[in-house]
Amino acid sequence: MPQLSFDELGTPLREVTFVVLDLETTGGSAGADAITEVGAVKVRGGERLGELATLVDPGGPIAPAVVALTGITQAMVTSAPRIATVLPSVLEFCAGAVLVAHNAPFDTGFLRAACRDQGLAWPRPAVLCTARLARAVLSRDEAPSVRLGALAELFGTSVRPTHRALDDARATVEVLHRLLERVGNLGVQSLEELLALAASAAGTRPTDAQRRKRGLAERLPNTPGVYLFRGARDEVLYVGTSGDLRKRVRSYFTAAERRRRVRDMVALAQRVDVVECAHALEAQVRELRLLGAHRPRFNRRSRTPYLAWWLTLTDEPFPRLSVVRTARDGAFGPFRSRQDAVSAMESVQDAVPVRRCTQRIPARDPKATPCVLAELGRCGAPCAGRQSVAEYAPSVHAVLDLLAGHADQPLRSLAAEVDRLGAAGRYESAATRRDRLAGLIAALRTGQRLAALAALPELVAARPDGSGGWEFAVVRHGRLASAGVARRGVAPMPVVEALRAGAETVRPGPGPLRGAPAEEIGVLLRWLERPGTRLVRASGGWAEPAFGAGRWGGWLAKARAAPASKIGAH
């Protein structure tokens, strides 16, 4: 394993387990009041791993004002367990995770007091306050208040806070995920950077180097776009994006910026260039392109901005699946890592009798081609012995149909095998097969969705800009060809036609994504699928295959949610 560079040290956020906690209490004093309800949700990588919820007998009366606020009455807690019974379960649920709470000092204060009263050691977990994180990430114009209810309204969470512990914890999970989506644009990729960013909201003194560079931001516009910090040799040190370029760049020279890596970058910076954009989507796309072009050393994402792995059938009489780095015609992907691609390949091989050996088999005889390894008794592949190319063809077609979404029988076979293993009590084997199948379905779903968008010669979409106007995007073969806005009171369709007329000409390239980078198509797809986005026009029709992985969404959700003991029940 190669040694990590300094910039790569830290815990990636996708690997961090968070336990989002909320407490209801009889009052605001951890010393004088008691806990009446606990709610907690465990998440990692955007997936919910488990929940904990219980009422708690506070051992004393609940004031009428608290009853009115929370709805928790004395009768509800009379038969509930005392904190001495509940606390060990709560601490076990939180073990090894980062503790997250909205206004975290309040919740951790009550837990610390409960540990002290019960003679238990406080485990001193890493603590993240979503209120402080929101204040560090969101401008006051966007979020005048960082109360949980206000943030839930701002982000349109599916669960709204109700002053009940589990509801508030679930709402906080959604707020946390929305904030984590934002911190990527700030260059925050690790837990350590995230905790430092949240702590910065409390305020610290900026360094001398930060203060000396404040003038670099003074003439920048207050518009959306991309900013580039440049060094003494005009090299690009760092690339970022923001809805307000001047405000964002100024933040690098204040106490809010505490990341050592970025402070080192600021000390080297001599100039800040900006690319003004019509809206946030255009800024995101241009940021990706600039990262790919310059690979600035202070951006974590710039090391391999467009790295992807693909599956393809080899060009042989008896083709086999192979993992490659180039998305040629007929390839399937993209995969973020080679291991993900290998896992998907193994799942396909489990379902379709396609050969696995790497022996090159020449087509000496069109009717029968013996394999050297088969003759030696060392190969059990379906092409072994004297199977003809014609007899092997159905396996090849089955693979192509599966990857293209023309047939899903292999998926049905794999799902049936998972159920069979579960019914036989072979839970570990079933879990392994289930997880591999879930990974394959997720990869198929992603690849088919990206390919469907990349196939469109042109798509025009619009989103409300929040001020009575519209934001527009012209997408051609998976690339952003033009972007613009129609402010309130401006007729939108003439703007659309002008954007189409001036849009970049995109010639489709090879591969399932027509030569477009997977990351760029992913950004466009997420924007298009956000609630409120409207399709203005789409040439050729935007559709996914009828027998693609999209129809397996329900199975995938159940498979990811079910523990090993429930295998066979779905």
What is the topology, as strand order, of the major beta sheet? Answer: 3-2-1-4-5
How many individual β-strands?
Answer: 15
By DSSP (H or I, 4+ residues per run), the number of helices equals 20
Cα Rg: 28 Å
Instruction: Tell me the domain tally.
Output: 4
Helical fraction = 25-40%
- CATH architectural grouping of the largest domain: 2-Layer Sandwich
Counting helices, strands and paired strands, the structural category is alpha+beta
CATH class call of the largest domain: Alpha Beta
Biggest sheet statistics = 5 strands, mixed
CATH names the topology of the largest domain as Nucleotidyltransferase, domain 5
Low-pLDDT stretches? 1-9
Distance between the termini: 39 Å
* Shape by Cα distribution: globular
Tags for this model:
570 residues, alpha+beta, Nucleotidyltransferase, domain 5, GIY-YIG endonuclease, 4 domains, 5-stranded mixed beta sheet, 4-stranded antiparallel beta sheet, 40% helix, disordered N terminus
Summary of the model, kept short:
This protein is of the alpha+beta class and 570 residues long.
